[in-house]
Design brief:
By secondary structure, the chain is an alpha+beta fold. The protein has helices spanning 29-37, 40-61, 109-126, 132-140, 157-167, 202-210, 229-237, 259-268, 291-301, 314-327; strands at 20-26, 68-76, 82-91, 93-95, 101-103, 147-154, 177-180, 185-190, 196-200, 221-225, 247-248. It has 10 helices and 11 strands.
């Protein structure tokens, strides 16, 4: 890894010349209202994303590693509507206590989403904004509304800077904005290739734009781990170049974590790792995802399961998936 110093662009000295990944965290529509009227929660939401990512990396490598994270809090959607979510520019891996960089080139979005869901629920429960009944209701949904997307990657410093510019983009584009003088309405084009149009009263337009103004002193771009000022300052004081840690190229294999068990214990006050027969502590050996193996185990144990309600028809599933996809656009 190398670091390029530039007097014209001092921000470029922060990003390491290493593979990065953009990780986007989103929350259900039902929970967004809390962040709209209590903007300080946006900072806490950003910490939820960081905690989820750090715990995910620990579960994946079974090591305390610190990634480089540039976090951007975004409060707007494509229609200038209130849509709080997080954009993280993350190094593909992190450094351990010995300063060695462990490379992780693949992310499990589903597992990372579970960690993020847990952190957000614990935050809102701690603030007494929701109760356990609502948590149970959301967890029973086929699509909870929580989502993590980490498919966009950058293989070098230049690509990482391009993603960073996208993350700090403005609320709206003047090219998409026009005025319908006949109807006296503001016209805003959004969606892919500006394919959709929304007409709104000018007062509504002003209200939408001003609703995204941060509170006084609120920081919308944050730096964690390898990119934190404290970390870079300590390394510089010790005479160590933080941009050139020794890299361990071998991929870290996933090791199951008990994070889900901790979430169930805190939310439902039931420890799922306690044996219901003897009361002893159970240990996770592995997670089986191959449905053929699962079917064999069920047949061998002669277990039967009956759903409380039948699954929706195939067409309904496609419609629900389309609605869920449109929510994150």
């Amino acid at each position: 890894m190398s670091r390029v110093y530039s007097q014209r662009h001092p921000e470029r000295t922060v990003i390491l010349d290493a593979p990065h990944r953009q990780v986007v965290f989103t929350i259900p529509k039902m929970l967004r209202i809390f962040f709209k009227y209590k903007r300080s929660l946006l900072s806490s939401l950003c910490l939820c994303g960081r905690e989820a990512l750090v715990k995910y990396l620990k579960a994946t490598t079974r090591k305390e590693i610190a990634p480089g994270i540039i976090a951007v809090i975004q409060s707007f959607g494509s229609r200038i509507n209130f849509h709080p979510h997080l954009h993280f520019l993350v190094t593909e891996g992190g450094t351990d206590k010995q300063g060695r960089f462990h490379k992780i080139s693949s992310f499990n979005d589903s597992l990372l989403c579970r960690f993020f869901t847990r952190e957000v629920f614990l935050l809102l429960l701690r603030k007494q904004l929701i109760n356990r009944d609502l948590v149970e209701k959301i967890l029973l949904w086929q699509h909870t509304g929580f989502n993590v997307h980490s498919k966009v990657s950058a293989q070098n410093k230049k690509e990482a800077e391009r993603i960073g510019k996208y993350m700090i983009r403005p609320i709206l584009s003047l090219r998409r904005l026009s005025l319908d003088e006949a109807q006296g309405q503001v016209v805003y084009q959004y969606g892919k290739h500006n394919g959709e149009t929304e007409y709104m009263d000018y007062l509504e337009f002003i209200a939408r734009v001003t609703s995204h103004i941060p509170d006084k002193g609120q920081v919308m771009i944050r730096y964690y781990g390898l990119y934190a000022n404290a970390h870079r300052g300590k390394k510089k004081k010790a005479g160590v170049d933080p941009s050139c840690p020794p890299i361990i190229e071998d991929e870290a294999s996933f090791i199951p974590s008990s994070g889900w068990a901790e979430m169930i214990k805190k939310v439902y006050e039931i420890d799922p790792l306690i044996c219901p027969k003897c009361g002893g502590q159970m240990r996770i050996i592995s997670f089986i995802e191959d449905y053929k193996v699962i079917d064999k185990i069920i047949d061998h144990l002669k277990l039967t399961f009956k759903a409380e309600r039948p699954p929706p028809p195939a067409q309904a599933q496609l419609s629900m998936a389309a609605e869920e996809k449109s929510e994150y656009i």
